[in-house]
Amino acid sequence: MEILFGLFFILFFATFFTILIRNVGEWFKNNASPRLTVPAKVVAKRSSHHHHHHADDVFVSWGKETPKAFTQEQIRRILEELDSGEYGKILRAKGIVEGTDGAWIHFDYIPGEGDVRTGSAGIIGRLCVIGSGLNIPALSELFGVELA
Predict the structure, then answer these.
(1) Helix ranges restricted to H, 33-146
(2) What is the per-residue pLDDT for 3?
(3) Contact between residue 129 and residue 90 where contact means Cβ atoms under 8 Å apart
């Protein structure tokens, strides 16, 4: 037991002094580095922005569960349609829906890019759209689900 205590004591102090020596060496190196005397010019400044925004104040999400079945082509057309601006500023959309062929369709969307693939089964279809100024009635109509 005394040997373990001694080994621990030596290991602790060896680690402590190693870290101390490295940090002092880095401090001396930084202090010996030349100082830059290049003049700087401010090109932009926020002068009247004194409040904070929270994500809930800027973004809205719309989610819906649906038993409706889709084809992969229908989902691709829907994702392309999200770029039109008619549905608000869409930042992200994703979902898992049942396919008309029995497979489950997974999709992801960011502006200008949609990804449609098959994947693991879900219990019920789920849709989620995140953005600002969402036109929820139009989104419901686009996906063919009830507004409720």
Answers:
(1) 55-58, 72-81, 136-143
(2) 85
(3) yes
Is the residue at 81 inside a domain? yes
d(CA 90, CA 110): 8
Q: How far apart are CA 49 and CA 43, in angstroms?
A: 17
Specify whether 21 is located in the same domain as 63: no
Count the Cβ atoms, other than its own, within 10 Å of residue 87: 23
Range of the domain at 119: 58-143
| pLDDT tens column, 51-97 | 666 655 678 899 999 999 999 999 999 999 999 999 999 999 999 99
Please tell me the total count of domains within the chain: 2
Place of tokens 């190196």: 29
**What CATH number did the domain enclosing 92 receive?**
3.30.1220.10
Residues 21 and 65 grouped into a single domain:
no
